[in-house]
Design brief:
By secondary structure, the protein is an alpha/beta fold. The protein is about 40% helix and about 15% strand. Helix 1 (about 15-30) crosses helix 2 and helix 2 packs parallel to helix 3. It is globular, with a radius of gyration of 19 Å.
Length: about 300
């Protein structure tokens, strides 16, 4: 099974102070896709520079020629499907059809609280799942139909026009991040890819072996969700976003370490491995030289 290697470029650098160069370098290194996070702020980067995903991807689309681009991931926490669809159609057009939408239910971080009025409480996991279950099918319609009218529990659209639609047909691909039953059903029905970071309960005290076994279970449940819909699970790309399993950043310590890690996960069925571009003085402070050697040498050792 062939394996693709992609990267995540966190939007922490001004475009003219190293930001543009990162995206150009990702293309030069041969990464399949360069993603960015779609958050209002994120973890330890909250009090530093953090730029918007859609403008960043628009600039990256104008600067690059071959590199696929995407979010990893967008969520309903601060997005509405009608306005998001308009931005995605524009972005897909500017890029010449190189956009993948990574999409998930969202978490309870800064995205979940920034827009709240005083006294309001963030959505519970069930409420996030409820919204996600309405968000994805509506976004699917908005990206494939010229005019959409919809009245749901959480979202509405009245003759929302999205002409001329996506360059990619019938629409740009969805990479659905999910591990629970409802999210996996959405991935099976609407996704062209499925995304996982592993089992978060194992991050602190689990072992790499336990992590792989947990991921194997996720893939089995994805397969069942696909089978229930009469779909072959092999139709979905399977994407692992690294850095959140018990392995942490150890796979980026050397080419050999990455080849071992990637090979074990390829054998589970993954078609794409995503690594974070180095950021000094952070959880992603990996060696740039080693990172580039992995980008240019690792896949040839996995064929």
């Amino acid at each position: 099974m062939s394996l693709r290697l992609s990267t995540v470029i966190l939007p922490v650098r001004r475009w003219h102070e190293g930001g543009r160069g990162q995206w150009l370098r990702a293309e030069e290194l041969g990464f399949h896709t360069a993603y960015t996070y779609d958050h209002l702020a994120w973890r330890s980067f909250r009090d530093g520079p953090w730029f918007g995903a859609v403008p960043t991807l628009t600039a990256a689309a104008a600067a690059t020629e071959r590199l696929r681009l995407g979010t990893l991931v967008t969520s309903p926490n601060f997005r509405h499907p009608v306005t998001l669809a308009k931005e995605l159609i524009s972005l897909d057009d500017i890029s010449g059809g190189r956009i993948t939408l990574g999409i998930g239910a969202g978490g309870n971080g800064f995205d979940a609280t920034t827009l709240l009025a005083e006294g309001q409480q963030p959505w519970t996991p069930r409420e996030r799942a409820d919204r996600f279950g309405e968000f994805v099918p509506l976004l699917d319609r908005l990206l494939t139909e010229d005019s959409v009218t919809y009245e749901g529990t959480f979202y509405s659209a009245t003759e929302a026009r999205d002409i001329p639609g996506c360059v990619q047909r019938p629409r740009l691909p969805f990479a659905v991040a999910a591990t629970g039953p409802r999210g996996l059903r959405l991935a099976a029905r609407h996704g062209q890819a499925w995304v996982t970071t592993g089992d978060p309960k194992l991050f602190e005290n689990g072992t790499p072996e336990e992590s792989r076994e947990a991921i194997r279970g996720q893939i089995e449940r994805l397969g069942k969700a696909c089978a229930d819909l009469g779909r072959d699970v092999a139709e979905l790309d399977k994407i692992l976003l690294t850095g959140f399993t018990p392995d942490r950043n150890r796979p980026l310590e050397s080419v050999d370490a990455f080849v071992d890690f990637a090979g074990r996960h390829r054998d589970l069925g993954f078609t794409e491995i995503v690594v974070h571009a180095p950021i000094p003085d952070s959880d992603f402070a990996t060696d740039q030289v080693v990172f580039e050697k992995i980008a240019t040498e690792a896949l040839s050792q996995l064929r």
